[in-house]
């Protein structure tokens, strides 16, 4: 019902529309419409009410609800069910709790996370109303060994969205998006499965969108940034979310229908910040060194070691760094 009322108000081109018209259109009482309108006002919708005129939508809040995203989606599965929170400990944790009974493609999204997390147990800061913190529940009929490919799909989807918004971004294998040599997005893919059967996959994305410098912890300022900091303007978060989900479904469909991620791999290779560079590989506190030379069809980073041997890296517990720091 909320979605229908919002759409009617949005389509009225900022002119007044009577409560009776909305009531007749939706088949509910004017009292019910009045209650919904008041609820929308509490959510941040600026709706003008005038006696004998009705209601007029002045502006919409920058919130990531189903109603503010669904009209922008072109997907068939991804994002057709969106569960929104004002605050949550972790969207990935919530997604894993409900994955067994929620639909494939369900999105868990929150205005903030109090216990956001990244790979290898790291934390992720989440400024309220200033970032995108969401998780996608997937139920693919694939082998468990193919699940890491989904991280590359997610990275390619986010990267494509940023490029479409004139933001020059790069991918730091396997799961970071980099702008101006600083991290702007992290991706965390988790799964539940058996030896060769996937029960569900949860793909979490944390993106610093409209954060100011003072929102970023001081110890992270040297390696973290936001889209607003880099482009000196604010971004509509709901538009970014919809674009990411549209791109994700297009790329994910290739895995499900064709059993490959060729398009995602090409995007990741063309926009890699590591390929062609000397890298430091950290695996359980042990370091080795080599040169990143490409990605294979599974999305594994190919590294050439000093003896000339080229080996693929499987993301797992491995961390890859530049020779002198994060990149």
TrEMBL record:
Cellular component, GO annotation: cytoplasm
Q: What class of enzyme is it?
A: ligase
Residues holding biotin: 90-92, 113, 183
Q: What is its EC number?
A: 6.3.4.15
What organism, scientifically named, is this protein from?
Answer: Clostridium botulinum
Reaction(s) the record says it catalyses: biotin + L-lysyl-[protein] + ATP = N(6)-biotinyl-L-lysyl-[protein] + AMP + diphosphate + H(+)
User: Keywords for this entry?
Assistant: ATP-binding, Biotin, DNA-binding, Ligase, Nucleotide-binding, Repressor, Transcription, Transcription regulation
Q: Which Gene3D superfamilies match?
A: 2.30.30.100, Bira Bifunctional Protein, Domain 2 (3.30.930.10), Winged helix-like DNA-binding domain superfamily/Winged helix DNA-binding domain (1.10.10.10)
One GO BP annotation of this record: protein lipoylation
Ranges annotated as DNA-binding: 19-38
Q: Which residues form the BPL/LPL catalytic domain?
A: 67-256
Nucleotide-binding as a keyword?
A: yes
Lineage of the organism: Bacteria, Bacillati, Bacillota, Clostridia, Eubacteriales
- What HAMAP family does the annotation carry? Bifunct_BirA
**What Pfam families does this protein map onto?**
BPL_C, BPL_LplA_LipB, HTH_11
The record's family statement is: Belongs to the biotin--protein ligase family.
Q: What is this protein called?
A: Bifunctional ligase/repressor BirA
Q: What does this protein do?
A: Acts both as a biotin--[acetyl-CoA-carboxylase] ligase and a repressor.
Please provide, alphabetically and separated by semicolons, the GO molecular function terms listed in this UniProt record.
ATP binding; biotin--[biotin carboxyl-carrier protein] ligase activity; DNA binding; transferase activity
Keyword Cell cycle tagged: no
């Amino acid at each position: 019902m909320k979605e229908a009322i919002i759409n009617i108000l949005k389509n009225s081109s900022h002119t007044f529309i009577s409560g009776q018209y909305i009531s007749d259109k939706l088949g509910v009482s004017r009292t019910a419409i009045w209650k919904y309108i008041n609820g929308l006002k509490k959510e941040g919708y600026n709706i003008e009410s005038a006696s004998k005129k009705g209601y007029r939508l002045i502006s919409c809040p920058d919130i990531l609800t189903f109603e503010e995203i669904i009209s922008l989606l072109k997907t068939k599965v991804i994002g057709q069910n969106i569960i929104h929170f004002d605050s949550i400990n972790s969207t990935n944790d919530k997604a894993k709790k409900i994955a067994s009974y929620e639909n494939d493609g369900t999105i868990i999204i929150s205005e903030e996370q109090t216990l956001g997390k990244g790979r290898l147990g790291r934390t992720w800061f989440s400024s309220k109303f200033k970032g995108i913190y969401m998780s996608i529940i997937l139920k693919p009929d694939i082998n468990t060994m193919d699940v890491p490919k989904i991280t590359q799909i997610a990275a390619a989807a986010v990267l494509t969205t940023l490029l479409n918004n004139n933001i020059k971004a790069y991918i730091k294998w396997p799961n970071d998006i980099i702008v101006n040599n600083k991290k702007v997005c992290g991706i965390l893919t988790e799964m539940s499965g058996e030896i060769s059967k996937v029960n569900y996959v949860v793909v979490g994305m944390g993106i610093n969108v409209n954060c100011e410098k003072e929102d970023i912890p001081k110890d992270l300022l040297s390696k973290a940034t936001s889209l607003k900091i880099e482009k000196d303007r604010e971004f509509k978060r709901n538009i970014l979310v919809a674009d990411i989900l549209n791109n994700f479904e297009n790329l994910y469909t290739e895995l499900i229908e064709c059993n490959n991620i060729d398009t995602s791999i090409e995007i990741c290779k063309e926009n890699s910040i590591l390929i062609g560079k000397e890298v430091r590989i950290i695996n359980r506190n042990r370091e080795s060194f080599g040169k990143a030379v490409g990605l294979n069809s599974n999305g594994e980073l190919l590294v050439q070691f000093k003896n000339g041997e080229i080996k693929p890296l499987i993301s797992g517990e491995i961390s890859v760094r530049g020779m002198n720091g994060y990149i």
